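Protein in question kept in full:
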Amino acid sequence: MATVQLQSVVKRYGGAPVVDTVSLSVRDGEFLTLLGPSGCGKTTCLRMIAGFVTPDAGSVHIGGEDVTRVPAYRRDTGMVFQQYALFPHLTVAQNLAFGLRVRKLRANEIKARVAEALERVRLGDYAGRYPEQLSGGQKQRVALARALVINPRVLLLDEPLGALDQQLREELQAEIKRIQREVGITTIFVTHDQAEAVSLSDRIVVMRAGGISQIGSPQTLYDRPANRYVASFIGKINLLEVRASGAVAPGASGAGLVPVSTPDGLRHWDAAFDHARAPSAGEPLLLALRPERIQLAANLPNRIEGRVELATYAGDGWYLDVATGGDTRLLVKTSGRAAPSAGEHVTLGWHGEDAVLLRDEVAA
């Protein structure tokens, strides 16, 4: 069952579409992230769901009800902002109680709900403090508790970790994920941080220029990106220009394997292709290959020789920048403490199923 639906929504500012005919369904209890760079339309979509922005066309549904013209305070959503938006003159408990008093709950129920919400975010001893007496991470926990205390049907988070340093961001990511799983609430999260999206989400919506480039699980977007834009936006990746040189054959992973060659015709490999239309012979394609899928000194069908230009320590291994002739370079991720030195010649190899073929559209 879809808790939230956007149906062909459009929003224009100054005549230009910021969100252009976007349709989206969010499942009940799902953690869904809208991911993309600044200006791609993700926050505008979230604000249309919240009721802060009215679409110029299309409709917004929550729980099967058309709420396109329903004001924000009647939409049964809880919102968490990047800058906390706490009342500075109220204590933590009073900040949480504010929305409950507006809803005219009884005093004893308000007290119980506030205490429960603070315990959920592990701030049970902070009820009497004021926002200025809290750290940034504590303020954001209070903001999250305030959004949840009203028992909303949908939780909306607009880059809530953007004002925090990296360590706090990672701590709050774990807290948000834990709380969302405990409560089971449908959650829509907006971020431009792909690592954050991958670690938190059941599904990710990758947005670009007011539209949707791809929707899928973090693993799907990482292993099977639909296009150059998604491949480049989610993690590190190598993109090599190739041409189809044969028919699609069955692969072990379920995707078809397509023989390809480099434009100079000197290198021949195969790679996975699982789009609806198979490539035709000679069609230009992009071979997308994650650095960690490449093996050193591997006796694999897909091979290439190269020279290490730079070795960079990454904590859990090394990134190798390998020149393979002409203008072609490959980024390789190795595990372990040792790595080839700069200037050393290496043989690289990979399985065909680990390389993905994309149609070579131009990235904006």
Observations:
- Residues 236-359 form a domain with the OB fold (Dihydrolipoamide Acetyltransferase, E2P) fold (CATH 2.40.50.140).
- The two ends are 35 Å apart (CA to CA).
- The mean pLDDT is 91.
- The chain has two domains: 2-228, 236-359.
